[in-house]
Amino acid sequence: MTSFFQAFDQLLAFLRPAFFWLAVVAGVLCALDWAVRTRRINPFGALGQFLRKFVDPVIAPVERKIVRAGGMPSAAPWWTLVAIVVAGFVVLTVLGFVRTQLGMLTTADNGLHALLAALIQWTFTILQLAILLRVISSWIGLSLYSKWMRWTITLSEPILRPLRQVVPLIGMIDITPLLAYFLLSFTQRILLSLLFGS
User: Fold this and answer.
1) CB 32 within 8 A of CB 51
2) Which of 64, 88, 106 lies at the terminal end of a domain, its last residue?
3) Domain containing 191: what range?
4) Per mean pLDDT, which of 86-90, 104-108, 171-175 is the most reliable?
């Protein structure tokens, strides 16, 4: 079992920088593609043709969704970058969660502590997932009141509503989901440290 955990840890250690560099490369390509779309770079030059040939087909599905939602096609590169960053974050979070759960479940000497820690982790992960899905659905125009998304409101609104009364909007951006996500992470760490510290 130790070799399995070592392999899992090596996979996570590989994926973290891999996703980071993927996001950096995607950020550069998306910035260049945006510059071509907004005519800051000549779209008929060598760079513009390269981007239209190799980058635009990757961005095309995102562009179609943006246009259908009434957005500008020139915003497609930035939304593609957001999708890449969010996908990397979700993959790393899910793999980290799985690794932690497997580690806790194989630690038999903790008994009740391991069970309580698993319940705390599962609870906070579900709450964070509800917040994350709610944010993503608002970006891509999914109705939060559909039968697939209603549970995200049920779980996240009791956390977000009090924060909205305290935290003002920044321009037109509501940062309370981000704040709630990090507050949940912080609270989870405190609870786990109290559980295993005692």
Assistant:
1) yes
2) 106
3) 110-198
4) 86-90
